[in-house]
Write a structure and sequence with these properties.
There is one protein chain. Helix 1 runs antiparallel to helix 2. The protein is of the alpha+beta class. Strands 6-7-9-10-11-12-13-14-1-2-3-4-5-8 form a 14-stranded antiparallel β-sheet. The longest helix has 22 residues. Helix content is about 15%, strand content about 55%. The protein has one domain: YmcC-like fold (Beta Barrel), CATH 2.40.360.20.
């Protein structure tokens, strides 16, 4: 039973990485969360994690680079720096747009993330398509969530700002292949994106009136249901300013992460 429990726990770290990529700020949060999940089951799940996918925020954007309701400024050199707190560890992550290229129906944005956590630094790069209707395609691809934990999936789509503003839940399914502890597990993550109105939020960078978005993921691994929730606060003209994530499996919460914006600089 210990092994069966540890595989879903370690896999949950990979799914959390995907959740943060869908919703928020940077990848160090999922790195630290992966460490927590890995350390709780290291005897059979491959040990602690050290890195996961970068997470440019899938907020709505038009071809001009922003939306009136959930803006995400698009521009080469735009840089976001965040503080991270997870499982007693702290660090920073830096997201920087390194390329913006016109493509059919929108813009292709390349984001580089550099993590500074637990005395180490790591970098990764992801590409996003900001469509002219305000939706965003995020080619999730491969996510490494620790030693022996790899998640592969097709891309995901973030809905336009008008849908988020309406509060309507947008469901989608993502096919996943999780490799952990020598096992390959195929499953489907049921993802829901839903706006939760506006709220005032204070972070190191300042106080903002922000749009709140909740991303919920649910999946089953070896008969155990794993839930991931990521809540993100988006500020006009800035993008994501705060991000909170947690996972629950077998009815118990196992991971909690908070990221807060320290600074945003336009290129």
């Amino acid at each position: 039973m210990q092994k069966n429990m540890s595989v879903p726990t370690a896999a949950a770290a990979a799914v959390l990485a995907a959740g943060l990529a869908l919703a928020g700020c940077g990848s160090s949060a999922s790195s630290s969360a992966s460490k927590q999940a890995g350390s709780s089951s290291s005897s059979s799940a491959g040990g602690s994690g050290t890195h996961s996918a970068s997470a440019a925020t899938p907020a709505a954007a038009t071809s001009s680079g922003s939306s009136a309701s959930v803006p995400f400024p698009i521009g080469v050199g735009n840089t976001w720096t965040y503080d991270i707190a997870a499982n007693g560890e702290s660090g920073t992550t830096v997201n920087k747009m390194t390329a913006v290229t016109p493509v059919a129906g929108g813009q292709q944005v390349t984001m580089t993330t550099t993590d500074h956590l637990a005395g180490t630094s790591e970098s990764s790069t992801e590409t996003f398509i900001f469509h002219s209707d305000g939706s965003i395609s995020y080619p999730l691809g491969q996510v490494s969530a620790g030693s022996g934990v790899t998640l592969s999936s097709s891309g995901v789509v973030w809905p336009p700002a008008s849908v988020i503003d309406s509060g309507k839940a947008t469901p989608s399914d993502i096919k996943l292949l999780i490799k952990v502890a020598g096992q390959a597990i195929s499953t489907t993550a049921h993802v829901t994106v839903q706006g939760e109105g506006t709220a005032t939020v204070t972070v190191p960078a300042g106080t903002y009136q922000a749009t709140v978005v909740l991303v919920t993921e649910q999946m089953s691994i070896d008969g155990i249901t794993v839930n991931v929730q990521t809540k993100t606060w988006f500020a006009p003209g800035v993008g994501p300013v705060k991000d909170q994530a947690s996972t629950t499996d077998a009815g118990a919460s196992s991971i909690a992460v908070t990221e807060e914006l320290v600074s945003f600089t336009k290129g």
